[in-house]
Amino acid sequence: MPRAASICLERGCVKRTFRSGRCVDHAPAERPWARKSARNQTASSVLRGWERQVRPRALARDGFACLHCGGRERLEVDHVVPIAQGGTWTLDNAQTLCQDCHKVKSAEDRRHRRQ
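Request: output the structure for the sequence above.
Response:
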């Protein structure tokens, strides 16, 4: 069923609306929530590559065990040098840690970043 015609939401404008509730003259150039920064666009594609390629290879390379304590449960793949400190999304910057060791390492990374 087609939508009923409506007039522009701008005060005093009686033109018909398109989709945004505003006429062609008053429609925003783009939806602000649809914009993505260059950082977010590259991060999402890099993250998919990390999850599909780097993470499984790091787990296999490290023998599916935590490099710090040797645990084999609740494993996570961590960046040796955090991205915020200039690290890369490559296999040579990945290491397998259990959740507990990862929390400790992340806390240390935050402490070093503050100094």
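Strands lie at 75-79, 94-98.
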